[in-house]
Amino acid sequence: MKKLIVDKKYDNKKLNKFLQDSIPNLSTNLLYKTLRKKDIKINGKRVNENITVFENDIIEVYIADNLLEKNIEVNTIYEDDNILVIDKPVQIEVTGINSLTSLIHNQYSNCEFLPMPCHRLDRNTTGLVLFAKNQEALDILLKKFKNHEIEKHYLALVYGVPKIKSQTLTAYLFKDSKKSLAYISDEPKKGYSKIITSYRLIEKYSNETCLLDIEIETGKTHQIRAHLAHIGLPIVGDGKYGNYEINKRLDYKTQQLRSYILKFNFTTDSGILNYLNGKEIKKI
Description:
By secondary structure, the chain is of the alpha+beta class. It contains 6 helices and 17 strands. It is 18% helix and 33% strand. The chain is globular and about 55 Å long.
């Protein structure tokens, strides 16, 4: 049995969304089978429908652990005394229940300080995630990300080919938390935040897709996915901002977006992390 508490992010969202995000190995078929059997309780009451949940609801899911078992390998790309860089697989959150962070905490359970992530990736975005192995390193790295002193590059397979091979784009993003959707405007609007996204064409393919290197100066939720879709270059496999027919034809079920470069470009003193300045960590 798994006992979960609904956090603010999932307030007024559907039960299946909360459960499938919270239990990575829970398939849609198993979820609805469990509902039909009334093996899910909300605040002590059994339910058999995909109802709406609210913040602080207590969810109890009666599913045998062996049905949810799935070995997720933690692939370490770089490690030293202060930092850890992990290659995050698809379909796992960086933080939360059954997340990449919880896997790392299990692996380092005997350490005085449990490694903490310094940034996040979407559930279905793969690639490099930077963890701090002590509080001093965490404080420094969070400040460096805030000051844009750590460069992040992504690889995106998109449908379409840009006429301009390399470009920096400015737009404005509004995040609708209830719908978990980002909206893009070319002009400033009330409630919209400025975003800056740069792309560079790496390679184009015969099936009308191409590979882009993406760098973001701002790090808003769904920024890359929504911004690329807005300019007519949806990420292949993206079920939210992409094109269903194209994804189906090309046979991609998850978004083809990967964090593949972390580069430390420190312009101010970095204390115990000064040795990282100029270092690039890359994994395609």
